[in-house]
Structures are given as structure tokens and as C-alpha cells.
């Protein structure tokens, strides 16, 4: 169960397929969205129940809670898996009241972090504590969230574990794409094949660090004027920090920036990049960083929870302070100035990804734990 269909498509689809291959009958719950039809064609049964992503939307939440309860009660599921904060709260509450025997929540990342104002932090911690009361078991995708949950008393010692995160290593394999493919693909998306490319794959919101990235890229162009910034990600117009693309015009980087929006061919687009950047203010465990590393790209990211777990500083990439466009620019210029080092970092990133980010290992751990509770 998730809030939006994009999570099913890009993060959980492989896990659904894995469980189906193992003989499980899998049902998914999410809000209505444009990917639902496509996912149904791929043999994913989806129940559409509107779930607002805002932390507090009481009237909508009560209605969603009621619909979830009646659905779970009707279907008599053996186990419910919830993902992301709001479904983690509403889904687990509904499942518990409906009598579902096994309720497993996965935490990709808490809403709060070290710089969250005290009142908000306390509120988010309280919500997580309440949600945990309905959990049979909780998986954590990064170590810092797991440690924070223990420190703040959100979980019981025997109720949770850190499990890591993973991606489809067969899909994000740089050996799939030769030089001819890269040149054709660059031309197809409007990039001169001879130009260096710095890329980002992230939702178009400010907390992903886009303003700092644009400011840093402006500095990059002073030294490397033929560099291209490739931006891949969906617009989030409903978010308060939604990105205004007019910003790039104000910064004078429009001619060197390519916006592709939401794409299903991100594996192919990673193949066009020379450097990957994700200067987020907050993350759980960033899939795009894992994917970029698997694809042999040096990664520049920020010293925040999740990001610093995915990158080994000065080995697989460069870690810079959040909200610091100067340090971000210095890191990009440094890697563009030393392409051999950039390539070496990318190679180390691929080694790390193959060792630590294989999703099949993750799926096996989850299934084994579920079987323990189903016996």
C-alpha cells in the first residue's frame, strides 16, 4: 500500500513481480493516477483509494481510513505491507482494526531530520510512534533512520531491523549501452554528442536542491561553457516548494539545460551522463544515487541522512554540505577537470552497487521475515 502510483511503478514494481513469481497473490492500493492503467496491464491488481500525502488532512484521512478498513475486511488479507509515511499510518491502523494478522511497514525515510524545528520534530516522532503501535514488524532502508527510531523510542528492540535498499542491477548495467547508442540517444533528446553532461533525476521541488544546482551550474559554465545540465523528473505542482522553471532564465543557463520531465527510460538517460548530482536537503535512501552508481557515474550529493549512506566520499563520489551552491560548483568543476578521477569514482560506485544494492537480496530477506509471522 502506497500513496501514489508512481511509487508502485518505479520503486515497488520489481518487488511485486518477485512475490508473484514466488506464488503469492498480490494486491496493491494507491491513489488514482496515470500509471494505474499501465500497471494493470502488467498483471498488477490495483485498488484505487485516495490517500492525501499531506501530513495533516483530517477529513480526507478519515474517509480514506474507512475505505481501507472495509476493503481489508472484505478481502481478508494474510499480510499487509505499507510504504511511505501517510499509508504507513492509515494503512496499518485500518489493517489492525480489520483483523489482518501480519502488518509490515517499510520506512524509506522520516519526514524529520537534524535541522527540523523542535515542534515539528516532536509531532513527526509522535506520529511515527503511533504508527509503530500497529506494526507487526518494521523494515528500515537506511541505518540512520533505524538508529534514530531506537534513540527516540519509536520502536521496540525486537520489532524492527535495518534491511538496506536495492535496485534492479540487470537494468542499471552500464555494459548494456555502447558508444553508438549513447550518441544516438543524446541526439534524440537534443544534446550534442560531443558535450559533457551533468545529470539529475529527481522530482521538481526545491528540497531536491535544484536552486543550488542551478546556481552551481552557472559557475560551471564559466569554466566549461559546453557542458549540459540534464534534468529528469516529474513536476510537483501541488507541492508548496514546487519548482518554477523560469528560474533558469533568470540565471542565464537556459541554453545549456535540458528538461525531459518524467521518463520511463531513466536507465538509458543515465548512460548519457558523465556526472550525477543530487544536492537534496532531505532523503530516505535515494534510489537515483544507487542507480547512478550502478551505471558507473561519479555521484555528487549532500551530507544528509540517506545520501551520505549511499556514497563513499572521495571514493564513489563527493559529499558536499546541503544548501551550498559554492561547494557544489567546486565539486562539479573538480570532476570535469579530472575526467580520469571521475571515471575511477564511477567504477568504484559500480562495485559498491553490485555488492550492496542488489534488490533480489532485499526481497529474499523480506519474504523470509513475512513467512516467520505467517506460520
Report on this model:
With 375 residues, the chain is α/β, with parallel strands linked by helices. The protein has 2 domains: 5-166 and 358-374, Glycogen Phosphorylase B (Rossmann fold, 3-Layer(aba) Sandwich), CATH 3.40.50; 174-356, Glycogen Phosphorylase B (Rossmann fold), CATH 3.40.50. It is 46% helix and 14% strand. It contains 15 helices and 12 strands. The chain has helices at residues 5-21, 36-41, 58-75, 85-97, 118-132, 143-151, 179-188, 210-223, 247-251, 266-270, 287-294, 307-310, 325-337, 339-356, 359-374, and strands at residues 27-30, 45-48, 79-83, 102-107, 137-140, 160-162, 197-201, 228-232, 257-261, 275-278, 299-302, 317-320. The strands form 3 sheets. The chain has a 6-stranded parallel β-sheet, sandwiched between helices. Strands 3-4-5-6 form a 4-stranded parallel β-sheet, with helices on both faces. A two-stranded parallel sheet has the order 1-2. α3 (58-75) packs across α4 (85-97) and α11 (287-294) packs across α14. The radius of gyration is 21 Å and the shape is globular. The two termini are 22 Å apart. The relative contact order is 0.11. The mean pLDDT is 93.
Which class best fits the helix and strand makeup?
alpha/beta
Tell me the CATH topology of the largest domain: Rossmann fold
Count of individual helical segments? 15
- The CATH homologous superfamily of the largest domain is called Glycogen Phosphorylase B
Largest sheet, in brief, is:
6 strands, parallel
Amino acid at each position: 500500500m502506497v500513496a501514489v502510483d508512481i511509487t508502485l511503478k518505479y520503486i515497488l514494481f520489481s518487488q511485486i513481480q518477485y512475490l508473484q513469481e514466488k506464488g503469492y497473490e498480490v494486491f496493491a492500493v494507491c491513489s488514482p493516477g496515470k500509471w494505474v492503467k499501465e500497471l494493470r496491464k502488467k498483471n498488477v491488481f490495483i485498488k484505487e483509494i485516495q490517500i492525501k500525502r499531506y501530513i495533516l488532512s483530517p477529513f480526507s484521512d478519515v474517509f480514506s481510513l474507512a475505505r481501507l478498513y472495509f476493503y481489508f475486511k472484505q478481502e481478508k488479507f494474510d499480510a499487509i505491507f505499507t510504504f511511505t509515511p501517510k499509508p504507513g499510518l492509515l494503512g496499518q491502523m485500518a489493517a489492525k482494526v480489520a483483523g489482518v494478522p501480519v502488518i509490515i511497514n517499510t520506512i524509506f525515510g522520516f519526514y524529520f531530520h537534524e535541522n527540523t524545528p523542535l515542534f515539528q520534530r516532536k509531532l513527526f516522532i509522535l506520529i511515527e510512534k503511533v504508527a509503530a503501535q500497529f506494526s507487526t514488524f518494521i523494515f528500515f532502508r537506511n541505518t540512520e533512520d533505524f538508529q534514530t527510531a531506537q534513540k527516540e523510542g519509536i520502536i521496540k528492540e525486537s520489532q524492527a531491523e535495518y534491511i538496506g535498499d536495492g535496485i534492479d542491477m540487470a537494468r542499471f548495467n552500464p555494459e548494456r549501452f555502447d558508444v553508438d547508442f549513447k550518441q544516438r540517444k543524446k541526439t534524440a533528446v537534443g544534446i550534442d554528442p560531443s558535450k559533457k553532461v551533468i545529470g539529475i533525476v529527481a522530482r521538481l521541488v526545491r528540497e531536491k536542491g535544484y536552486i543550488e544546482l542551478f546556481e552551481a551550474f552557472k559557475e560551471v559554465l564559466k569554466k566549461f561553457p559546453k557542458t549540459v545540465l540534464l534534468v529528469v523528473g516529474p513536476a510537483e505542482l501541488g507541492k508548496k516548494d514546487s519548482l518554477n522553471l523560469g528560474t533558469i532564465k533568470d540565471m542565464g543557463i537556459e541554453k545549456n539545460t535540458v528538461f525531459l520531465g518524467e521518463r520511463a527510460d531513466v536507465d538509458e538517460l543515465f548512460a548519457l551522463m558523465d556526472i550525477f548530482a543530487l544536492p537534496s536537503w532531505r532523503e530516505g535512501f535515494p534510489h537515483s544515487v544507487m542507480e547512478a552508481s550502478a551505471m558507473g557515474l561519479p555521484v555528487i550529493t549532500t551530507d544528509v541522512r540517506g545520501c551520505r549512506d549511499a556514497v563513499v566520499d572521495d571514493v564513489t563520489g563527493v559529499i558536499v554540505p546541503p544548501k551550498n551552491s559554492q561547494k557544489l560548483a567546486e565539486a562539479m568543476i573538480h570532476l570535469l577537470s579530472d575526467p580520469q578521477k571521475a571515471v575511477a569514482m564511477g567504477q568504484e560506485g559500480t562495485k559498491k552497487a553490485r555488492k550492496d544494492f542488489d534488490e533480489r537480496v532485499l526481497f529474499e530477506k523480506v519474504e523470509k521475515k513475512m513467512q516467520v509471522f505467517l506460520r
